[in-house]
Amino acid sequence: MSLVETATADGIATFTLNNAPANCYSREMMSELDAAILDARFDPSVHVIVIRGAGEKFFCAGADIAMLQGADPYFKYNFCLHANETLLRLENTPKLVIAAIDGHCVGGGLEVALACDLRVARKGVGKCGLPEVKLGVLPGTGGTQRLVRVVGKSRAIELMAAGEVFPLERALELGVLDHLWEADSHEDFHAKVREWAGQFVPPKAASRAVGLIKRACQTGAEIALADGLALERELQQRLFESEDAREGLAAYNEKRAPQFSGK
């Protein structure tokens, strides 16, 4: 059985974390996720990536604690290093990544979601947070770095130092979630996610431009303004040379809806 099930349709690659009962990740799952990210990166038919959890109870509850308890410090360090590299690869891939959260999203599960570009969740089905301090450790898969960038320094410190786990409604208030939707069922929620994700896929969207907007923001937020502006200019030049830019400009002047190809 695959720990990361992959499926592609209508320009959207869906990665399903599948490790019952809580979709906890191991070295094996991270290796499969890493490979899936690279496959999607190289696949020109993929324009958007959606990451979800199997079942209705958990998006992901983080690392497999039983596995970590039995591992030596050498393994634990390399396990954390590889998880960091995998999530950085996700951030660096010039395709929009959406976390579709239907259930609890805690610990390393929230760290995976924070590495996605957008986070949407089903209302009333779970909680999220980074409670690693209650295990005597810190969030070690990017949580200390990404949460502070989302909610601010003092609030991130408080949430992590208290090990607070909070409802998804609170996550929306904090800005951890971008959208929180009512849905009648697990299937209804994921159908809504796919419909919403479709706005970022050709022919509706210039997905190459969407991907480079992501790259400009993900990298630009970490460097000086002048360097960020230089990056923006270089990415813009790449887009000026694209088929979608020609189509977009022509459609505007011809007063018609553009038909983008993602090229």
| Computed Rg | 19 Å
CATH topology of the largest domain: 2-enoyl-CoA Hydratase, Chain A, domain 1
Largest sheet: 6 strands, mixed
Instruction: Provide the structure class.
Output: alpha/beta
CATH architecture verdict of the largest domain: Alpha-Beta Complex
CATH class wording of the largest domain = Alpha Beta
Give the CATH H-level superfamily of the largest domain. 2-enoyl-CoA Hydratase, Chain A, domain 1
Q: Give the number of DSSP strands.
A: 10
Number of domains: 2
Order of the strands making up the biggest sheet: 1-2-3-5-7-10
- Give the overall shape, derived from the CA principal axes: globular
Briefly characterize the structure.
The chain is α/β, with parallel strands linked by helices and 263 residues long. The chain is 48% helix and 17% strand. It has helices spanning 27-42, 65-69, 73-92, 108-114, 143-151, 153-162, 168-174, 186-197, 207-220, 225-240, 243-253; strands at 4-9, 12-17, 48-53, 58-60, 96-101, 104-106, 118-122, 127-129, 165-167, 179-181.
Overall description:
- This protein has helices spanning 27-42, 65-69, 73-92, 108-114, 143-151, 153-162, 168-174, 186-197, 207-220, 225-240, 243-253, and strands at residues 4-9, 12-17, 48-53, 58-60, 96-101, 104-106, 118-122, 127-129, 165-167, 179-181.
- It has 263 residues and is an alpha/beta fold.
- The chain has 2 domains: 4-200, 2-enoyl-CoA Hydratase, Chain A, domain 1 (Alpha-Beta Complex), CATH 3.90.226.10; 207-253, Orthogonal Bundle (Lyase 2-enoyl-coa Hydratase, Chain  A, domain 2), CATH 1.10.12.
- α1 (27-42) runs parallel beside α3, α4 (108-114) packs across α5 and α9 (207-220) runs antiparallel to α10 (225-240).
- The radius of gyration is 19 Å and the shape is globular.
- The model has no long low-confidence stretch (mean pLDDT 96).
